[in-house]
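Thread: Probable succinyl-diaminopimelate desuccinylase, structure

OP (GT): Posting the sequence first so everyone is looking at the same thing. Length is 422 residues per the record. Can we get the structure tokens written out before standup tomorrow? I want them in the notebook alongside the other entries.
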Amino acid sequence: MHQSREAIKRQVLAAVEEHQSELINLCSELIQFPSENPPGDSGPINRMIHDYLSKNGMEAVWHEAGDKMWNLAAETGSEEGKTLVYCGHTDVVPAGDRTKWDFDPFSGEVKDGWMLGRGASDMKGGLAGILFAAALLNRLGIELPGKLVLAIVPDEETGGDLGVPWLLERGLVKGDGCLIAEPSTPLNPTLGQKGACWFELTVKGAPGHGSLAPLSGVNAITQMVQAIERLQSIWDIDVHIPEEVKPITAITKKYMADTKNYEEVVEHVTVNIGTIQGGTKSNVVPDQCTIEVDCRLPFGITPNDILQYVQQELNDLDLDYDLRPFGFQSIANFTSPEDPICQSVVNTIADVTGEEAYGVMQWASSDARHFRDYDIPVLQYGPAYLPTIHGFNERVKVEDIIRCAKVYALTAIDFLFESASE
């Protein structure tokens, strides 16, 4: 006699509780691999993941997308029914100055209820959770009426060209829904994200002897100061939010007002001058200055709109400049809260936590946009201590890793069984 869906959920939930130490040890081991990107080398950590899945009866297939850039794909379940994709990235941003850490960033140490190390929040806590959930379902012999696919990618932190889009372009990963284990808050998976426009601006001057400045030469750095002042006005661009996304925008603004006090970013273009380089030495008038800029775009505006605005502002200054887009270029995108994968995740979070859950917009960008480009509904949910992401002393609560693993395991059951009954 087949078990009911609820009985299977109870069985799986009990198994997650019983094998918590396996999950935490897995996360710790993942952190111990210094998979910083750049430079990027997914080989060592992927071998560890391959071995873990193999021990749990799952065969991971390697896909080489570039030098030292390997994707892994694995699956469990049935070829019949729908397919659910769980996605995670193995790379982390560089740890930076080790002297500014209170602990070894690659120790994977557990202390006072916290998992410590680079990637703990972004996103080895979530990565451990999806690996553990899939392995557990396979090990328990749960007869899923559909397929659960793992897509483990190597380069999300540098734009993801050799990860999710590479797999999707080649048809190596397909699905009817997707969950990415990116960091989120406990009750609020992200159903959409802002767009992005990264660009490099180079202002050209003319060299001269520093002792004769400002009468000699044209100082590119001081001209860049004028340009940067104009770029700050990007925030003031009047963006008209389309009617169809106003509900999710309003919910997100309330959420951010309640939790972050950052609600204004939802409807504004943010602008960050991330790097600046110029000049050769103090007694030479600099003939060139270059900055890199990161803008995140709400619904209603495109990267091309931003670049045109920047050109207009710079032309008013009569500068000699080059403007070059690079890196992230995307428009804001989202998945409907009514989509089955969104409903499954939100309902499961509520069941696991006993609290109300709802989806919100993400104020940054991620691999989710690539899945939406291929009409695969997607959302993000993962363990995180948000203040430490990409910073020193990154960490995440152990209890959050366990909670998310429960959500991952139960969502797979809920989504695939619900899809089979439609």
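GT: Both are above now. Quick notes for whoever picks this up: Residues 195 and 297 are 5 Å apart (CA to CA). The chain has a mean pLDDT of 95.
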